[in-house]
MOSC domain-containing protein (Saccharopolyspora ipomoeae), 216 residues
Amino acid sequence: MSAVTSVNLAVVRTGEWTGRIGKSGIDKRPAGGPVRFTDTGVAGDSVCDTKHHGAWYQAAYAFDAEELAFWSAGLGAELVPGNAGENLTLSGADSTSALIGERWAIGGAVLRVTGPRQPCRVFAGFWDLPGLVKRFTAHGRTGVYLAVEQPGEISAGDEIRVLSRPDHGVEVAELFALTMRGRSDLAEHVAGCLPDLPEKWRAAAAAKIESARVTT
């Protein structure tokens, strides 16, 4: 069964690694009870870099407990729920294999998968791991950003129920492979998910697809 291991909220941190903003909400800790998810974000969470985070299509971020275990083994340090900056730590979900536009019911909320997370220097600084952006990109298991279609409360232990999956069959991992890893062979397949992408990400993906078409 796919389920929520933990619901996590930000503890705002400062430090040189936070970049030009000077503070970050990437450090998230397990909440003590149910948390309300709305179309504008997660109640009680903090978004500091509003240029790159906090849009409606980034209302929440989910990451797999299995991926935390993978990185823990590679880093030689235990990563716990919230350490990837995720609001939802999931188990048994394989979230990066979800389809763009896939809809989930969790607790009292309905969430829609909008796209992959793109690693950044703040993430690398938080983990204190130079080269993390390159390693994370190469690994390609990014977790997913989520829009909230139906606001509601989510708690640790809630089951994840897939309500619908688009016919295009484009996985989050495949979109990331094209846009961030240069997998131009995926261009025509990924083109099928363009209508399900937020406008900003649709334009970026369309440019990658067009570039691939020109060079093949």
Notes: The chain has six helices and 13 strands. The chain has a mean pLDDT of 96.
